[in-house]
Each structure stands twice: as structure tokens, then as C-alpha cells.
Design brief:
This protein is mostly helical. The protein has 14 helices and no strands.
């Protein structure tokens, strides 16, 4: 675990040394701010961030792959992975460390949006219920972490950051479309199966302030599965 935390710290710092890190921060803050101005700061409308939280899955679609695309691809491209592989670090520790570093960056990205909460609290009368806001931020964190784990797996497959970005985004887009549009047209048995992995459906409850432990467990287990998949891919590369 100590090795994983050291790698996470290194990865978190490295994301602030590359332009793409700052670009993702600026883009997310701009998208959040635009949605806040368009859908929240509406005279006479309820004081809530629900419109933003309800679209969290789609908002993360291009951003999570942008964060995760370099996690392992860049190590392959620069040849530093060979050094990392010979270090006293297991494949699981490498995958977990990379994942935790990206997750910490995600939290920093979400922290940039907190001023909008302050604005909402300052101008609203009556004050908005803090419960749905806290649940909404939890939902954005969970879906972001899940998407980062998918991106980590894509990054473990190639030395090209572009391919890692496109692979993760296409996979996530296919996932979202299959569980929303595709689910509506699928036969009953398949619709039920797709419903169990419906990300946007699970986010709807959080946006209303309802925290279902089953939904939390789904995101955590699914994220863990993809980190494990990345670890297994590293093991295959090590012994290939």
C-alpha cells in the first residue's frame, strides 16, 4: 500500500506539470460555470444544483479519459515503465497508485466548483437543503472514479495517449448509450440486464438527495474491477 500511495502522490503532482491537466481543470470549471449560469441562476427557480448533478455522467465523458489517458501510456512511450517494472512494486500497486493519483486530481477538479455552492447559498432565500448538494457531489465523485478506472484500463493497453483517450471515451459512450437508448428498445431480459449497469439511472437518485448504498457499492465494485483488469494487463505485459 505504501508503494501505491507513493505512486499516487507522484502521479497527482505530474498531472499539474502537463498542459492537459490545467486544460481539463479549466474546461471543467467553464462547463460547470456555464451550466450554473444557464440552469441554476434562474429567477424564481428552486435553489438547487440538481440540473448539473443530473448530467454528471455525460459531463465526465470526455474529461475522465483526458485525465487517465497518460497514466500508463506515457510510461510505455517514454520507456520509464521498464524502470517502474523492475522496482519493488507489484503490478497491483502500480495500477492502484496510478488510479489513486488520478482520483485525487478529480477531487481537486471538483474543489474548483465549490465557489458556485457558496454563491447559491449566499443568494438563495430560503437556503437550499445541503443534503442533496452533498449527495450530488458524492455522485459526481463516484461516476468520475468509475470512468477513470475505465480510462486506466484503456491506458494499460497502448503506448499512444490518443488511442487510450479514444478507446476509453468510445467505450464509455457505448456504455451510456446501451443502458439508456438501447435499453428502451431491447427485449425485456436484456433491458433488465442493462438496467443493472445503468450509470445515469443510478445517478438520478443522488441528484434528489437519496444515497442508496447499493448504488455506492456498484460504483466502487465496478471501479475496483477495472483497476484489477489494468493490473492483470500489466502482469501479462511483464511476462510476455
Amino acid at each position: 500500500m505504501r508503494v501505491a500511495l507513493l505512486l499516487a502522490r507522484r502521479e497527482f503532482a505530474s498531472l499539474f506539470r502537463v498542459p492537459v491537466g490545467w486544460l481539463v481543470l479549466a474546461l471543467y470549471a467553464a462547463l460547470w460555470g456555464g451550466m450554473f449560469a444557464q440552469f441554476v441562476l434562474v429567477e424564481g427557480a428552486p435553489a438547487t444544483l440538481r440540473p448539473i448533478f443530473a448530467t454528471a455522467g455525460w459531463l465526465m465523458l470526455p474529461l475522465a479519459p483526458a485525465i487517465s489517458m497518460r497514466l500508463l501510456s506515457d510510461e510505455y512511450r517514454t520507456g520509464s515503465y521498464e524502470t517502474l517494472a523492475t522496482a519493488p512494486a507489484s503490478d497491483a500497486a502500480i495500477a492502484l497508485g496510478k488510479f489513486l493519483g488520478a482520483a485525487a486530481f478529480l477531487l481537486a477538479m471538483l474543489a474548483c466548483t465549490l465557489p458556485t455552492v457558496g454563491v447559491l447559498l449566499a443568494i438563495s432565500d430560503p437556503m437550499p437543503d445541503p443534503g442533496p448538494i452533498a449527495a450530488g457531489y458524492l455522485s459526481v465523485t463516484l461516476v468520475g472514479v468509475l470512468f477513470l478506472s475505465v480510462g486506466l484500463t484503456a491506458s494499460s493497453l497502448t503506448s499512444s495517449q490518443t488511442l487510450a483517450f479514444l478507446g476509453a471515451m468510445i467505450a464509455l459512450l457505448a456504455w451510456l448509450l446501451a443502458t439508456t437508448v438501447g435499453r428502451q428498445r431491447a427485449p425485456a431480459w436484456l433491458a433488465d440486464a442493462l438496467g443493472t449497469i445503468d450509470v445515469t439511472g443510478r445517478l438520478a437518485g443522488f441528484a434528489k438527495g437519496v444515497i442508496d448504498t447499493g448504488d455506492v457499492a456498484f460504483f466502487l465494485v465496478a471501479s475496483g474491477w477495472f483497476v484489477l483488469a489494468a493490473s492483470m494487463i500489466l502482469s501479462i505485459r511483464r511476462w510476455a
